[in-house]
Amino acid sequence: MISVLVGILLFLVFLSFISKALQVREKNGAKRAAIAAAVVILPFFIFPFLPIAAELVFLALTALIILVILILLCLPISRISVKKEAPAERFDERDIPFSRFRLEPGSSRYRDYYKRHPEAEEADDKVRLLPGLLSVEAKRATPLTSAAAMASFQFTEELKDKVDGGDRKEVEELKNAVSGLSGEELTRWVKKLPLFYGARHAGIAELKSYHLYSHIGRGAGQYGAPITLAHRYAIAFTVEMRNEMIQQSPGPGTVMESAREYANAAHIALQLTNFVRTLGYSARAHINGNYRVICPLVARDAGLGEIGRLGFLITPDLGPRVRIAVVTTDMELIPDNYIPAASVIDFCTFCMKCADSCPAGAIPTDDRREYQGALRWRIDADACFKYWNIIGTDCGRCMAVCPYSHGPLYSATVVRKLVEHSGFARRALLWLDDLFYGRKPGSHSEFYF
Ligand code: SF4
Ligand code: SF4
After folding, report:
1. pLDDT of 258-291, one tens digit each?
2. Residue to substitute in 249, 363, 386 for testing ligand 2 pocket (most ligand atoms within 8 angstroms of CB)
């Protein structure tokens, strides 16, 4: 009888996983889980029909396995300590691929850039000959998906000149009314408002020099101008990228989802900026194509996650499956406390799924190395960007295969807590992830949205 009850319990756990996997169209994961369920659960229903001694032996064995797992979960496996890594220098936005590939060959800007970086010119010119992002001549772009992605990108681009509120004025009456409010109250509001507008998580960081790019490379403002920002605080927030779209990567669905979420993040950031400005404070939204700050670094310091091997922010519940936007302000706020996530660094040290699956070989396979005075995994952004220009869409394969992205397996709170606190749980999660999704999972072949 006890074994039947345990069998029913296990059946419900597997059923919940399978239905969640089907909801996000993870058919392979669901299929493999169904097979695993049959293998694991069947004995619990067979043994009650065998002699009582056999059932007792089976239950004793099950109890022993559970005991061993509990002991392993409590052991201090891979308990590493990591410190906060802060770059000693600022990064020049003109050096990112998106800025370099806006340079018109033959223009004075182009000549000036490659005079300073002659080593990059030949390779960059070769990439310029590729079909390009959203080009229907590219391998994986289609006219309709490219048009849909362009529509979202253009929408975000049209907001370019509104990032600091434009000619929006403070409302004197409101400004006076909130002047007596505490920093706690204002902080609570600016963290809750993004969620109200549609964000997933929000946090506050105190702005540091290394958060800012050194020079303007794209977006509003004079190309090449040194970046200064009089703001003291940054409100960072994330928006979710849907798992079922990301699992199609690298395919046209990825760039549609990416463009859509950049646009969503932009409209949230602008509403928040307007809110802050209405109360009489200065504010600026940092949205796709128009940044003054390096969003993943700001979001990390705002307590929203840790930067993983694939170079993206890994958030506690959605992993890297997010887009980020930031609003900076001089409103007096209370920053969140960033505690470096040793569990993520440990997981990334042995997992390697993103590096193994990257079609461009752009993700490092060794340990974190020092770059600009900070330990990090540094992806080869040029190789990644080149691949995007070959296929005509965002790739996102690294994001799709990351175990932290896999909602059905990773989303349960108890799983997340175990992974955070136990080195054994992290290894077990990777083992299960490989079992259900494969070590090097293929992308979803059909396009849907
Ligand atoms: S796939 Fe693995 S190694 Fe890569 S970011 Fe995710 S957890 Fe880290
Ligand atoms: S987006 Fe694709 S090419 Fe770029 S790092 Fe990730 S897996 Fe590699």
Report:
1. 999 999 999 999 999 999 999 989 999 999 999 9
2. 363
